[in-house]
């Protein structure tokens, strides 16, 4: 019996001894790992050894790039978002097209320099508005028009055929215009416009423009001033008023030249706008 007890005690002692050794071995093998990891944390947080860069990484470990790339302290200025790339591509394509368009439009210009006078009328342009003035003996003839939304393609008359060399129809400006005959503080005003259909061949009346409205006032014009539409005027009175305009220099020939000048003026303004859009797109003022 005593022998069995002693044998059991030895077995138990050996088990305890082996367990202690195994525990010691496990603890010994894990200890260096813990020390290495602890040393790494201490080393990264030591600003004196890494010049503070590692400290910034630790302190800012949760910061991500605002562009959504989720990179931590690794984003550079050279990286662009898809939206920025599409915007840059769109602007570049616009500038390239405008460059080609400006060259083509300048090549198509009939008048490189706008005249300062049209049939004795002095020209003054202000943006889209143009004022033509002529001083007569006892009165001033003033013509005012605006070139915005006045351009349309030139229609071909009966019997006229577009040639193969004419890839595009000519764009012409035919603005509505005001004619003011000023004597002292009194003004006889006419609102005129180009006729939609050209006069037929052999027609007794070959006018290319007509009177839309007639008014007479003193001082400055206002909404209270009475005006009458041209299409309700007596036919004979209408003809007399047209003859009056012709005597003051506003004839069919002059109105045709007015259209020529307006076309050149509008074309010049269009090119200037294209150049402005190009400069705006590339960031120039």
TrEMBL record:
Pfam family, one: MAM33
Entry's Gene Ontology BP terms: cytosolic ribosome assembly
Organism of derivation: Papilio xuthus (Asian swallowtail butterfly)
GO cellular component, one term: mitochondrial matrix
Domain of life: Eukaryota
InterPro entries assigned: MAM33 (IPR003428), MAM33_sf (IPR036561)
Name under which the protein is recorded: Complement component 1 Q subcomponent-binding protein, mitochondrial
Family: Belongs to the MAM33 family.
């Amino acid at each position: 019996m005593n022998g069995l007890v002693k044998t059991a005690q030895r077995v138990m002692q050996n088990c305890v001894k082996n367990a202690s050794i195994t525990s010691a071995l496990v603890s010994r093998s894990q200890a260096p790992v813990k020390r290495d990891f602890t040393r790494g944390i201490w080393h990264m947080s030591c600003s004196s050894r890494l010049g503070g860069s590692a400290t910034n990484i630790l302190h800012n470990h949760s910061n991500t790039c605002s562009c959504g790339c989720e990179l931590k302290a690794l984003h550079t200025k050279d990286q662009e978002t898809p939206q920025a790339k599409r915007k840059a591509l769109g602007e570049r394509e616009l500038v390239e097209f405008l460059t080609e368009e400006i060259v083509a439009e300048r090549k198509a210009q009939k008048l490189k320099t706008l005249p300062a006078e049209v049939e004795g009328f002095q020209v003054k342009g202000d943006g889209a508005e143009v004022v033509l003035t002529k001083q007569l003996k006892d009165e001033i003839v003033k013509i005012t028009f605006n070139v915005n939304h006045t351009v349309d393609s030139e229609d071909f008359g009966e019997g006229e055929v577009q040639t193969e060399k004419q890839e595009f129809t000519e764009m012409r400006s035919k603005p509505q215009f005001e004619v003011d005959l000023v004597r002292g503080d009194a003004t006889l005003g006419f609102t005129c416009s180009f006729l939609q259909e050209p006069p037929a061949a052999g027609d007794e009346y070959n006018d290319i423009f007509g009177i839309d409205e007639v008014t007479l006032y003193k001082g400055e014009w206002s909404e209270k001033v009475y005006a009458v539409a041209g299409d309700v005027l007596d036919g004979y009175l209408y003809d007399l008023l047209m003859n009056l305009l012709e005597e003051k220099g506003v004839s069919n020939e002059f109105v045709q030249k007015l259209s020529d000048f307006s076309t050149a003026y509008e074309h010049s303004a269009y090119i200037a706008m294209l150049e402005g859009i190009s400069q705006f797109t590339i960031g120039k003022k």
